[in-house]
Amino acid sequence: MKFVKGLLILLVLVAAVVLGGGLLLNDEVHVQRSISIERPPAEVYAVVSSMARFNEWSPWRDYDPTAKQEVSGPATGVGGKLTWSGEKGAGSMEIVKVVENAQVTTQLDFGPDGKATSDWLLSAEGDGTRITWSFDSKFEGNLLGRWFGLMMDSMIGPEYERGLKDLKTLVESTPAAVPQPPATVSGPADDLGSTPDQAEAAEQPEAGEGESQGEGGDSDA
């Protein structure tokens, strides 16, 4: 009897700690990781703004071999969406905001497991790019969720680091874009760069030609 009573007291204390401690914990969670890529922002943006290319560098691309995936919407930019469903869960990720060569924001939907927002922020760093991948979620007052939030950095952080390293390898292994030379105006080589005065002068007979012909005519007469 004493054992049962002691067990009940222990359970009450644990519940009090969980509930009371949960009230003191943050209702939001933020995780972020960064890496430098030796390519300009435009080349990095071209990859992260495309849901069709996410699995080329995603740290979860081999997480669930049973998962069926579908990409919909435009090839790049707002509206691009990736959905998945498999034995280890289902969800979707959709691009909801972009700032060209600077930001891509996605909305994550994990169904009953909640929603979150993820950003890729790009900034020029010398001739390269500094990219920061972040994750933000709110627990909407869920006390157990707040306790779970304490583990989010250790759970998601390493995955973000791995994904960013794969993104770096992917972008840097792609041949750099070669600047195209400016277009030139085609035309006869003799006319290039000539002024109207020079063109008019070219059409006039050289000095002495008329006089020579005149003199020749007098002698014939």
TrEMBL record:
Compositionally biased spans, kind Gly residues: 211-221
Biased composition (Low complexity): 196-207
Region (Disordered) location: 174-221
InterPro entries (alphabetical): Polyketide_cyclase/dehydratase (IPR019587), START-like_dom_sf (IPR023393)
Family matches, as SUPFAM superfamilies: Bet v1-like
Pfam families per record: Polyketide_cyc2 (PF10604)
Protein name as it appears in the record: SRPBCC family protein
